[in-house]
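Researcher: Re-running this chain for the archive, since the previous output was lost when a drive failed. Same request as before.
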Amino acid sequence: MSGKETAVNVLIGTMLLSAFALFVAAYMGAIGLAFYGVNLAAKHLFPGLDRASDIEFYGFACLAALLWSVQHLRKRLWPNAFLSFAIVVAITLIGLADLHSGRGHNGFFFLAWPLFLLLVMPLEHPLRRWEFVLGAIFVSAGVAATTGMLGSTAIARYVPNGVVLGVFAWFIVNTRLGRLPGQSAPASPATHA
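Model: Regenerated structure tokens:
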């Protein structure tokens, strides 16, 4: 291979990489422009929104919860679907509520608990009755803490922590039982003997 062929190959490779980089930059610019439009619309439609910059995060979280709900509906898992739709409302309240709680928007609780609750629900089989009741309690306690219904007393500080710990414990139990989406059930110890 001569020096001229090498230079031509390098030039062609550089042009191809530049074209690909231009395509990726245009794609990212289009996505950024869409996010900017959503931000402007959110600021115009909800002037009291504290943190309009987080509207994309809450929008994607709501979209994920909605898709999760549709998957549950398609499989006729009614308790799972009902709880998933309740989580959509809870995530919306996190983004739109005027928070009166002592934790404010920056608390880990406000970002994490609905998403953890979504991860806990299995896609393959319906929730047991106690799991559904526990999930409904978590959602209602989380909404009460998020919207400031608990006031500024000690309960308002302990309920969010209890919900996060409860959902995390539920996650650990479901992981141990092999009930999470995409997870196969672990073999029982009796089969290894």
